[in-house]
Write a structure and sequence with these properties.
The chain is mostly helical and 118 residues long. The protein has one domain (3-117): 23S rRNA-intervening sequence (de novo design (two linked rop proteins)). It has helices at 3-29, 33-53, 58-84, 90-117. The protein contains four helices and no strands. The two termini are 24 Å apart.
Length: 118
């Protein structure tokens, strides 16, 4: 399995998880602002990865992976904020934070590798 397909799979699974988190925060915690932010950035990761994988050029791929990385970092921020404000338990936060950190590491390595090739 190539890194592209692993990133596609992990970013899609993460997006599904973020959608479910958004639903939970709205229904159970009556939180509407921060949850919308994490929904936007968290689902954008996979969209940019998919666009990059099916992009027109190496530069297009690198650009989309860079955007996906930025969205990942933003998602980490919103998750940290949700945790620090008590909307996520330590367990909930730890589980999803582990997933987003793994995606961030993969994207960082991908972007660095592509920039070296350029």
């Amino acid at each position: 399995m190539s890194l592209d397909s692993v990133l596609l799979e992990k970013s899609m699974a993460f997006a599904v998880r973020v959608v479910k988190l958004y639903q939970y925060l709205e229904r159970n915690k009556k939180e509407y602002v921060l949850s919308k932010q994490v929904l936007r950035s968290g689902t954008s990761i996979g969209a940019n990865v998919r666009e990059g994988v099916y992009g027109q050029s190496g530069n297009d791929f690198t650009t989309k992976m860079s955007i996906a990385l930025k969205e990942t970092v933003e998602t980490e921020y919103w998750l940290d904020l949700l945790s620090r404000t008590g909307y996520l338990s330590e367990k909930q936060y730890g589980d999803i934070r582990e997933d987003v950190s793994e995606i961030a590491k993969m994207l960082t390595a991908t972007v660095k590798c592509m920039r070296k090739k350029a």
